[in-house]
Amino acid sequence: MNIDAIGSVTGLVPGIGVQGAGLQGLQGAQAAQAVSPTSGLDFAAAIDQVQGLQSQSSALAVKAVTGDLDDVHDYTIASSQAAVALELTAAVRNKAVEAFTEIMRMQA
């Protein structure tokens, strides 16, 4: 399994992602060891960034409706970024909840 594509995920949401440099050519257990769990972003900070993207999208939507926005593409891009960021954050949250649930099942 080659994980070169992971580097392309970085940058979808500011501060969220896996640094692709240094991961090329690693496979299996080596790749898992290369990404340390403590190197990630604080989840609360990630939520703040998602909220910022949504606020920016909302502000551009208001400008588009009032006619103050020169390029509607700016709103479209901001809206897409906010949607992708929200989906990514929800997916990470869901995986964390699943992991917690699985750990609790193992303890019972």
UniProtKB/TrEMBL annotation:
Subcellular locations according to the entry: Bacterial flagellum basal body
Molecular function terms, GO-annotated: cytoskeletal motor activity; structural molecule activity
Primary localization class, coarse: other
Keywords: Bacterial flagellum, Cell projection, Cilium, Flagellum
Pfam families: FliE
Gene Ontology CC entries for this record: bacterial-type flagellum basal body
GO biological process, one term: bacterial-type flagellum-dependent cell motility
InterPro entries in UniProt: FliE
HAMAP family tied to this protein: FliE
NCBIfam families (alphabetical): fliE (TIGR00205)
Record-stated family: Belongs to the FliE family.
PANTHER family: FLAGELLAR HOOK-BASAL BODY COMPLEX PROTEIN FLIE (PTHR34653:SF1), PTHR34653
Protein name, entry field: Flagellar hook-basal body complex protein FliE
Species assigned in the record: Cellulomonas carbonis T26
Native organism taxonomy: Bacteria, Bacillati, Actinomycetota, Actinomycetes, Micrococcales
